Amino acid sequence: LSDSTIRSIFLVLRKALDAAVRDGLISRNPAHEVASPRVGRRRVTKLDGPDVVRLLGALRSNRYYAAFALIAATGVRRGEALALAWSDVDLDTRVAEIHLTLSQVKGGTRESPAKTDGSRRQVVIPETVAVLLRQWRKRQAAERLRAGKAWVGGDKVFTTPTGGV
């Protein structure tokens, strides 16, 4: 099991034993005698410029190429890019407001506010990415027309062909 899974199991067990103490089933919680398992930090590997260019070249025909280009050019996180709404993006000034994040949860996705003040920010979109986003917006508008009533999305920038995220 991963470090974080082991820690999660420990915390659930400790909480259950706390409830047993509270309910008078046991006199003390033995989990309090044990140190919480540590979660090791993984070292992040960053791609250098030529690697990014090769990766984007390989993704050129991918539906979400504009999303990958935005992430590579601005450093926004995947969840931040997926939470972006067109109302958060000004392609004329080439600025995007980052204030939400999208994460996967059991049964779907959940949108939540960015956790810290530092996470809420404006990012400058390079002109090359702004061009891709304009093209993407046109493609998305055509998909919205084709989908008709099947369109489930709202204002999100990066969607499935029927507007989902």
What's the short story on this structure?
The chain has helices at residues 3-22, 49-58, 65-74, 78-83, 127-147; strands spanning 89-90, 95-98, 100-105, 108-113, 121-124. The protein is of the alpha+beta class.
Shape: elongated
The helix/strand order is: HHHHEEEEEH
Strand content: 5-15%
The helix content is 40-55%
Instruction: Please state the structural category.
Output: alpha+beta
- Characterize the main sheet: 3 strands, antiparallel
Task: Provide the spatial order of strands within the biggest beta sheet.
Answer: 1-2-5
Let me know the average pLDDT: 92
Rg over C-alpha atoms, rounded to the nearest angstrom: 22 Å
